[in-house]
Amino acid sequence: MENQSPRQTRAGLSLWQSYLWCCVDVLSIWIKYISFPECSADYQDYTPCTDPRRWRKFGSYRLTLLERHCPPKFERKECLVPPPDGYKPPIRWPKSRDECWYRNVPYDWINKQKSNQHWLKKEGEKFIFPGGGTMFPNGVGKYVDLMQDLIPEMKDGTIRTAIDTGCGVASWGGDLLDRGILTLSLAPRDNHEAQVQFALERGIPAILGVISTQRLPFPSNSFDMAHCSRCLIPWTEFGGVYLLEIHRILRPGGFWVLSGPPINYERRWRGWNTTVEAQRSDYEKLRELLTSLCFKMYKKKGDIAVWQKSPDNNCYNKLPRDTYPPKCDDSLEPDSAWYTPLRDCMVVPDPKFKKSGLSSISKWPERLHVTPERISMVYHGSDSTFKHDDSEWKKKVAYYKKLIPDLGTDKIRNVMDMNTLYGGFAAALIDDPVWVMNVVSSYASNSLPVVFDRGLIGTIHDWCEAFSTYPRTYDLLHLDGLFTAESHRCEMKNVLLEMDRILRPWGHAIFRESSYFTNAIETLGKGMRWECRKENTETGSDTQKVLVCQKKLWYSSNQGSR
């Protein structure tokens, strides 16, 4: 059970204990072909755990209705989500950053409401993205140029990972890709309609999410930089819990960038439908809260203000015991981030990790292959297991490229590794025109800090539930032993239907599993209109196979609801 946590070991025992039951269940699926029906056409943008059809069941306080609320088992849809009429294969990267097909994301509301801010505009059959935003209507490039002047660390590889809260159509993250900074754009499914879907259609990393009552699905000390451009998050309300969450996920020495209210209120307040007194008060509250969290004002110019999180624990150690917010106690794990409630306390970085701060961690691209010190938190994690994993994935990915010649070309852009350990699959693809969402199971040993320390991005997730994304947002899904590890918890049929939902037509899925599971996967794949073929592994293993599947393009024949 190398590289597995005690929880995974127990899961393995559970799997063996239920072997006979699993065997009967899977063999019955393997023998009997199931043809999955189509969902109705009005489910073309279906997001099961953030479904507007179910919002009325949840409260609007702190926008909790926008958080994840997955349907119970008896309400799950066991049907194939159709594409919009006229759907086409997405425009290829990097051209996709500037334009996409209108029929692939046919939403007029955002075009009408945000055209004056140059978010996007419709021209013929396409949406065009001029690179504007609420705080940068004249172009994101000039906005980021100014930001780089304020933060030189954006230029030399010090800053590699960033999170954009309230991302719009992710133009900020798209611009940073050319500057060597990998940004995860975050936005809820809200009245802006499909911000995250636009981002992913453009080939820019994004995920559905909202800072509300639960932690974001990331470990502590993950991102080198966080950004909010008039994202309208009430940072100082509710005891400052939203800013406390930014503090938690930001690496020591990391930067928080804010543009929009209340920054530059002296000149801007008239356009914000407020008073100068109210904005001055908001600014003072924000400044006081940041100071209490050991942030220091780094630089400020025009509409942009930059704060830096304390690079070490000296500031936290000097805080009075009766200060607010208090330090979190040991009852809450700093890296716990799957349905973990927000608390009005401050997560202080573990002082034993001396090389995880922004000033100590290796600069990009060197940090990709340097063993992170937080690997010691992973069960059986060590420098040798890290180096071995890195080496093995280079061989595996080279083999995958023989099986799927499109991998490594501009035909594949958005990639997900559905159950990564150290991010080795993503690291092996680093020179290709792709980005990879690294997913770590909420039931596995939490290795996601290692992934972020390498300069990669990812999220925690439980594959018994739907992923936080729109349909048709990934070109390639990869899983390595997911069903071996999770089949005792998650029904294979539901996982595969979710993969079909998020996979683009003509997209590929690579399964590295034992033959015991690949036969069942292949049968279910045929019922989802996939074409699958079984291959040997690169080593010719007798116990493991590689199953390569491709989703086909089809259009809905259902108009009613299912």
UniProtKB/TrEMBL annotation:
Leading EC class: transferase
Annotated GO CC locations: endosome; membrane; trans-Golgi network
Gene3D superfamilies: Vaccinia Virus protein VP39
Protein's name in the database: Methyltransferase
The keyword Transferase appears for this protein: yes
Source species of the chain: Vigna radiata var. radiata (Mung bean)
Protein family (similarity comment): Belongs to the methyltransferase superfamily.
Gene it is expressed from: LOC106769232
E.C. no: 2.1.1.-
Keyword Glycoprotein tagged: yes
Cited SUPFAM superfamilies: S-adenosyl-L-methionine-dependent methyltransferases (SSF53335)
PANTHER family documented for this protein: METHYLTRANSFERASE, SAM-DEPENDENT METHYLTRANSFERASE
Membrane-related topology note: Single-pass type II membrane protein
